[in-house]
Write a structure and sequence with these properties.
3 domains; 19% strand; Flavocytochrome C3, Chain A, domain 1; 20 strands; globular; alpha/beta; four-stranded antiparallel beta sheet; Methane Monooxygenase Hydroxylase, Chain G, domain 1; FAD-dep_OxRdtase_2_FAD-bd; FAD/NAD(P)-binding domain
């Protein structure tokens, strides 16, 4: 059995920022980061558009209060306002801190950090590094980890969270390289495992975003919060689903239907293309549904709309959003300088996740905590995003709450002893799971079952939802879950067995998918990204509260938890 004082699962921005903060404050604490890819291949590296902060470099009228209001309004009033206040107050300081670490932000002519417009924000406050902001940030953080002596286990897949008697004690992990199993015990376990886009069939997320941390937490008895709120990014490149950053619209691109009309005037006349993502995604879906979408041959009734950059000019496109131009050119052969890009909504981000307090400690219920267990970033739900996240607030959450969680852990770990448990029990369980998968003589390929599950989620829990459609989806999911025992693996090796990893990831996908769909079915209202055609209005009297969904093989139990309202009373959301 291995041991470290603190183990952080996930090598993205939240995990790296927490690790760095722990080492800065308590250099003697032994910190390890465990990632199933190399840390600089974590999905944070793909974040394009920017990170919001009220630096006032472009807009001197901006303030943290305005940022907080935009965030709460964007969340459809489901965000916890104490968490939002901390997020927005800390934002300028974390940007300066990142710059001092070496992050190369884009600049204004006078040398100050540049800021651009972003959807749902009332001021130009999004700092950026062209359209590769996550890349610029993550590389510097990973470099700083090595400099500060953080132990990195890269390409280890974490199979199980060891949680006994309300206390996190360690993890079970599998070395993808050679099949070695290890138990690590720790005084503190932190999850920074990211999102679950691969639960759906079209997503901007990478192939590793399979919701493993969420599934492990749920299987260990931890509830998941607000899982019904799945963000569809309006501009996924058709047909591949990869992201065309909101930065493109922030720099002035137009959305057009088959008639060449800037249709956002019908849905958000003030904000137009820079309306919040849930509103813009619904607008595109409605245009397509009404027959004003576009076919590849340019005719009406097709599955996408156009994102038009041509009026921006080549110089601006190549200096401000070069990566987006490159993606469209490489993946679908579109030169955005001369022709519009085909786009449609794609699954992008999870507003929900592992429930945590503002110190990053995981909740066991609305009023109790799990000892020794912390989480931050996209896998966590401190609820700064509520029912809908504003663009450029996700990188901000990762660094603000990654740092705050690191600070909390650095104090908390001083009072902790190494926990006691029987490692052999967990080792045997992991070996049995692997052997069972390798020995299974089924008839179904993993990819085929995964595709059916992803198609079911996209069809039955998409941009628009109804009770009938979701109930059908849940019935299908139960049938697909039964088929898991019929998958078979061709690869029986210990060495680099990616098929075995895919089999375990599929189990995570199935757990998370069922939690999303059940939470969505139980929320009988429309709020933010959760849009129900059978309940088209927001219902504050019954549903101004957070969902807590508890998983068990027998079924999912739903409880609710109050929203923290300290500054802004809920009112109708108009843009």
């Amino acid at each position: 059995m291995l041991q470290h004082d603190v183990i952080i699962i996930g090598g993205g921005l939240a995990g790296c920022r927490a690790a760095l903060e722990i080492k800065r404050l308590t250099p003697n604490v032994d910190v390890a980061v465990i990632a199933k890819t190399h840390p600089i291949r974590s999905h944070s590296v793909a974040a394009q558009g920017g990170i919001a902060a009220t630096l006032q470099n472009v807009d001197p009228e901006d303030s943290w209060e305005a940022h907080a209001f935009d965030t709460v309004k964007g969340s459809d009033y489901l965000a916890d306002q104490d968490a939002v206040e901390y997020l927005t107050k800390e934002a300028p300081e974390v940007i300066i801190d990142l710059e001092h670490m070496g992050v190369l932000f884009s600049r204004l002519e006078d040398g100050r950090i540049a800021q651009r417009a972003f959807g749902g924000h009332s001021h130009k406050r999004t700092c950026y590094a062209a359209d590769k902001t996550g890349h610029a940030m993550l590389h510097e953080l990973v470099n700083n980890l090595r400099h500060n002596g953080v132990h990195i286990y890269d390409e280890w897949y974490v199979m199980d969270l060891i949680l006994e008697a309300g206390e996190a004690k360690g993890i079970v992990m599998y070395h993808i390289l050679d099949g070695q199993l290890e138990i690590i015990r720790a005084k503190v376990v932190m999850f920074g495992t990211g999102g679950y886009g691969r639960v759906f069939n079209t997503t901007s997320n990478d192939y590793a975003s399979t919701g493993d941390g969420l599934a492990m937490s749920a299987l260990a008895g931890v509830p998941l919060e607000d899982m019904e709120f799945v963000q569809f990014h309006p501009t996924g490149l058709y047909p591949v689903g990869v992201l065309i950053s909101e930065a493109v619209r922030g720099e002035g691109a137009y959305l057009r239907n088959v008639d060449g009309e800037r249709f956002m005037e019908r849905y958000a006349p003030k904000q137009m293309e820079l309306a919040p993502r849930d509103i813009t995604s619904r607008a595109i879906s409605l245009e397509i549904r009404a027959g004003r979408g576009i076919h590849p041959d340019g005719s009406a009734g097709g599955p996408f709309v156009h994102l038009d950059l041509r009026h921006m000019g080549k110089d601006k496109i190549m200096s401000r959003v070069p990566f987006c131009w490159e993606e469209a050119h490489r993946l679908v052969g579109v030169d955005a300088v001369n022709e519009p890009m085909p786009v449609r909504p794609t699954v992008h981000y999870c507003m929900g996740g592992i429930p945590v307090n503002t110190d990053g400690q995981v909740r066991r219920s609305a009023d109790s905590l799990v000892e020794g267990f912390f989480a931050a970033g996209e896998c966590a739900c401190v609820s700064v995003h509520g029912a809908n996240r504003l663009g450029s607030n996700s990188l901000l959450e990762c660094v603000v709450y990654g740092r705050r969680t690191g600070r909390s852990i650095s104090q908390y770990v001083q009072k902790r002893q190494f926990p006691e448990f029987d490692p052999q029990l967990y080792l045997n369980k992991a070996q049995e799971r692997i052997q069972k998968l390798l020995a299974q003589k089924g008839t179904i390929r993993i990819a085929k079952l995964r595709q059916k599950f992803q198609d079911c989620m996209s069809e039955h829990c998409g941009v628009f939802r109804t009770e009938e459609i979701m109930r059908e989806g849940l019935a299908k999911l139960q049938d697909l879950k039964q088929q898991y025992s019929q998958i078979y693996l061709d690869d029986k090796d210990n060495c680099w067995n990616t098929e075995l990893i895919e089999a375990m990831e599929l189990q995570s996908i199935m757990v998370v998918g069922e939690l999303i769909l059940t939470s969505a079915l139980n929320r009988q209202e429309s709020r933010g990204a959760h849009s129900r055609e059978d309940y088209p209005s927001r219902d504050d009297s019954n549903f101004l509260q957070h969902t807590l969904a508890y998983y068990s093989p027998a079924g999912i139990d739903i409880n609710y938890m109050p929203v923290v309202i300290t500054m802004f009373e809920p009112k109708e959301r108009k843009y």
